Amino acid sequence: MAGRRHRRQSYDGVVLAAPATVPYQRFSKETAHWWIARALRQSLQAAGMTLRDVDGFSVASFSLFPDTAVGLTQHLGLTPRWLDHIPMGGASGVAALRRAARAVQAGDADVVACVSGDTNHVDSFRRMLSSFSRFAQDASYPYGAGGPNACFALLTDHYMTSYGARREDFGRICIAQRDNALKNPHAVMKTPLSLDQYMEARMISDPIALFDCVMPVSGAEAFLVMREQDARAAGLPHAHIRSTIERHNAFPDDPIQMRGGWAMDVDELYAMADARPDDIDLLQTYDDYPVISMMQMEDLGFCKKGEGPAFVRQHDLTIGGDFPHNTSGGQLSAGQAGAAGGFIGLVEAIRQVIRTAGPTQVPDARTALVSGFGVINFDRGVCSDAAIISGAA
Amino acid sequence: MTSPIVPPPKKDPQKRTRTQTLPSGARSRAALGLTAAAAEGRFMLQVCAECGAVQYPPRDACSACLSTDLPWKDIPPAGRLIAETTVRTSTSTYFRERTPWRVGTVRLDAGPSVICHVHGDVARGGAVHIINRLDKSGQGVLFALPAERTQNMEDDPQLRELTANPKFRRVLITDARSENALALAQAFSKAEASIIFLGEAEGWRPYPHRAALAAIPGVELVPLDVTDTRSVAELAGEIGGKTDILVNNARFMRPGGIMDRGDTIFARDEMEVNYLGLMRLAQAFGPAMRGRGADGQNSAAAWVNILSVYAYANLPALGAFSAASAAAWSLSQCLRAEMRPGGVRVMNVYTGPTDDDWHQPLPPPKVAPSVLAKAVVAGLKDGLEDVFVGDVARDLIDRWRAGPKILEREMSETDGGGA
Amino acid sequence: MTAKTSNPAALIGDLALALASGAIEVVDLTHTLDQDFPVIVLPPEFGQCARFRMEEISAYDHRGPAWKWHNFTCCEHTGTHFDAPSHWISGRDVPNGSVDEIPAARFIGPVCVIDCSEGAKANEDFELTPEIIAAWEAEHGRIPQESWVLMRTDWSKRRGAAYLNMREDGAHSPGPTPEAVRLLVHERGIRGFGTETVGTDAGQGAHYTPPYPAHHYLHGAGRYGLQCLNNLDRLPATGAMLIATPLKIKNGTGSPLRVVALVPNRESD
User: Fold this and answer.
1) Domain that includes residue A152, residue range
2) Staple partner for A169: which of A174, A309, B178, C264, CB 3.0–4.6 Å?
3) Residues B119, B159 contacting (CB under 8 angstroms)
4) How far from A334 is each of A178, A330, A331, B201, B222, CA to CA, in Å?
5) What residues in B contact A126, CB-CB < 8 Å?
6) Do both B332 and B276 map to the same domain?
């Protein structure tokens, strides 16, 4: 950003490894603790490590109550010297990465396990919504209790009115992600989605219809942050962190959300990575609703503000397309596992750039941009962040 | 244009009465300021005392300067609908039963944007007039009306959820003998209440306006003496299940405080009517009304207490009556809490001296029965919880809010004509 | 009246047998204490007669599992009731003027019934006058000293607003003239006077001189009043015995009554 006095320190020497995804389930009788344990174990197994090798632990979860990361250390048998708990929902993946990377870089920890997971009981979504945040409780939940559907319906309605977006434009994002999800064996959505089906789906909260909404599920995601030399010594495939940004409560004077915090920091994101949008091989946006993915394409510099509709019309967003986007199917088709929705894009991006994505692998994927967006505290998402990561040269 | 509501059909006796569900009533302490303002139908928001920034949602510190001095002020209600949605699927049982439900984002001329309920007649992107009303959970919510009045506006189903409009509802007014009964019955008749039951105590002695009462369309005189538990129970047994609005209009007052009276006879009557009368009515009619809060278009909607504003501060010239009024006021708060699960509003209408025999020696201003009746009906149409009628009541509550102790001293030096 | 001398124990035994056989009938002269029964109405700035009220304490329920009982409240002068001399200012200084002080023997005595029902039917402000008393005595003999005198009007058959019969100028109901009361109290020396109406005085009794003559003369002379009586049409003009025992209320000016009369059963004659 212009006027910044000090150049930010790079993340050289720190890498991401051992991405793990516990296959999602629609409903689960298990707890967030159970899901987080599964993800942690899967990630450690992938790295050939045990609990004793982990000295840093970062957790993101909505359904741990009354526990936090602290309770999990005893519950899971961890003795970390560095501990973090990230309450940023859809922005928690990149936020966990940023914090853990600096801890490893500074020597405060050697191996940080970043884990996110949530369970979805039959009634847990309603209960989470009613007590999500103070402003939501006071100033949005009493108005129809439509939850995020209604909040994003308002943003979508305003975006459509302002920029002439049509439902079909959002449909293109959803349909491409469904196409990607069909290649992901763990995605909860397993049938193709046509534009007609998208357009004819029942309205949930106008103009948001059924296929604009994510399916709340149970699930967990994890990855490890460690020194590059340790990853190499263990023979672990790993990804480099080229740049990150983070911003909260950006543009508070906008009467309604038309842009996220990325718009404030996008120049720095590319400058630090010494990259341009053209260098990005795949984009993983936070996709709780397609309008937000469209805003990220704009705010992250792939097109200008208001050109999102044209952009998605002009590009093929599937794995094999010219602009691969949310290659695992994203939350829209793989499911939203609570706070793990803030990890799904990052974990998939790590797999992509270390070339372990299997059926969803984008050929020759080297550099990925991952963006996060989290916490509808009242009328808009407050947290936004992004990272550019690359695999081995 | 809103479709006018039609008189509801007779109830199908084989259908279960719908259980009242409520919108979420959880609020932070700061947000209760909105509820307090909604009780009187005022649109107020926090305004920073230091920098003047208007705040929303309610909070504990100014988001412009971190001042924690955030008094609630009346806010110009103008704004524009900048986004809208129709909620068709809700996690709340209350809204699920009432979808589709229109919600929008309104940019206030005063600054902040608010999420609010939206009247069906507001045009897309249209100018709105924001009102602050109590919802069925008894919490303040913002509602966008069209900036210009439209036809049958008050029949909007979402608005009707926030109000206790007497239209097509069945009303019980207690104490047909009181000076206010005739005006109240006329006002409810004009407001299209379907039946107006008038409780008449001591039918064995006449009173002047009985014939005029009986002549009002929709009026039915029924025996009811609020000092008689049996009489209250018997009437509740007969019409408790179809009393949608109950107006507790019974009042006993005599001049005097403590020493001039020298006995507790009138004080006991004051407690019997003003306090225990409310209790008896609430015990007999309350349960059925609370159970019928969601019983269709003519659901149980409101309980009205007509109270003396001297409930707030004792007027020594009417000292014992003031005390009984205070007891009734306190009990009304209990009733409000107990009625809340049923979504039935408890509206207190506070009046200063009324234009009747017992205030005859007092100087004006006094509240005419027709003015009181109008305020009762208007309060129900607005869904209010607290209504202050007349200059004396409004002046008194202003002073009470400014400093009850100062007011106490002022009251001891007044003759009852004003606070 | 002079009783035939007889062995008192035998008398009581005979009475008990006559009651048991039905040869002597017990007539209940009492109205049911009922929340809706009218009471006297005074201008509202005065204290008022409390209506009869009853609150259930328990009814075999959580408030008392095996029993039912009530609290009730009323005035000394609610329902069928007794007026003691201390009820009126004229009687404030008479000895034994309150109900607890009146010797119990005074509650039981012979009773004369003056039938004014025809007159009251024609005229709601019907007056009991010395002339009517004289005519009654001509037929039934002189009113004995220490007897109860009851004015029968059949007013007890009236219901609702017709009972008090209030109009803008006050109540309209029959009662005695001052002259009639003076005659009964001062010349005949009666024990007390009773009516079917809400008071011993006429509805318009305030307009006599003195106002409320029955109250004034009866109580001033230490005599008693009975009001809101019922079933007077079932009493003979003479020959019955009245039992009117008020509650023993300390300094009480009156009391609700269960008042009965012992009447010879005509069929058993």
Assistant:
1) 131-208+238-390
2) A309
3) yes
4) 8, 6, 5, 70, 66
5) 91-92
6) yes
Look at C47 and B266 and tell me if their CB atoms are within 8 Å.
Answer: yes
E strand residue ranges, B227-381: 245-248, 302-308, 345-351
pTM assigned to the model: 0.91
ipTM of the complex: 0.93
pLDDT tier, C268 (very low <50, low <70, confident <90, very high otherwise)? low
Q: Which of C31, C77, C81, C87 is catalytic?
A: C87
Give all chains having 3 or more CB-to-CB distances under 8 Å with chain C: B
Contact flag A150-B107 (C-beta cutoff 8 Å): no
β-pairing, B140-146 vs B113-118, is parallel
List all residues 6 or more positions away from A80 whose beta carbon is below 8 Å from its beta carbon.
Answer: A54, A55, A56, A57, A73, A109
> Does B58 contact A139 at a Cβ distance shorter than 8 Å?
yes
- Span between the terminal Cα atoms of chain A, in Å: 28
- The reported pLDDT for the residue numbered B227 is 97
Task: Kindly tell me if the per-residue pLDDT of B160 is higher than 80.
Answer: yes
Q: Please check whether residues A224 and A296 belong to one and the same domain.
A: no
DSSP SS3 for B17 = coil
Q: How many domains does chain A have?
A: 2
* CATH entry 3.50.30.50 includes domain C17-49+76-268: yes
Chains C and B physically touch (3 or more Cβ atom pairs below 8 Å): yes
- The answer, yes or no, to whether residue B56 has pLDDT greater than 90, is yes
Is C216 considered catalytic here? no
The full 3-state SS of B361-412, as one line of letters, equals: CCCCCCECHHHHHHHHHHHHHHCCCEEEEHHHHHHHHHHHHHCHHHHHHHHC
Q: State the total domains in chain B.
A: 2
List the CATH number of the domain containing A64: 3.40.47.10
| Terminal CA-CA length for chain B | 45
Band of residue C2 on the pLDDT scale cut at 50, 70, 90 = very low
Rounded to 5 degrees, φ, ψ at A372 are -120, 155
C64-73 and C192-195: which strand pairing? unpaired
Q: Is there a single domain that holds both residue B127 and residue B214?
A: no
Query: Per-residue pLDDT for B38 more than 90?
Result: yes
List CB contacts (< 8 A) between A134 and chain B: 28, 57
**In C, what residues contact B, Cβ < 8 A?**
35-36, 38, 41, 44-45, 47-48, 51, 53-56, 160-161, 163-164, 166-167
Q: CA dist B140 to B27, B33, B396, C176, C260, Å? A: 10, 8, 24, 68, 65
Within 13 Å of residue B199, how many CA atoms lie on the same side as its CB?
A: 29
- The residue type of C259 is V
B82 → closest Cβ in A144, A203, A256: A256
**Average pLDDT estimate for C14-35:** 96
How sure is the predictor about B360, in pLDDT bands with cuts at 50, 70 and 90?
confident
C77-123 pLDDT, tens digit each: 999 999 999 999 999 999 999 999 999 999 999 999 999 999 999 99
Of C221, C41, C202, whose CA–CA distance to C129 is shortest? C202
Instruction: Report angle CA B208, B211, B213 to the nearest 5 degrees.
Output: 95
* Shared-domain flag, residues B260 and B364: yes
Residues of chain A with pLDDT under 70: 1-5, 129-131, 393
pLDDT of residue B296: 85
Query: Could you tell me if A291 and A202 lie in one domain?
Result: yes
pLDDT at C1: 42
Are residue B111 and residue B201 in the same domain, yes or no? no
Dump pLDDT digits (tens) for B377-417. Answer: 999 999 999 999 999 999 999 999 999 999 999 998 876 54
Q: Are residues A161 and A296 in the same domain?
A: yes
CA A306 to chain centre: 23
Instruction: Residue A2: count other Cβ atoms within 10 Å of its Cβ.
Output: 5
Q: How many helices (H) and strands (E) does chain A have?
A: 14, 11
Q: Quick check: is A2 in a domain?
A: no
The token pair that represents B313 in the structure block: 């501060």
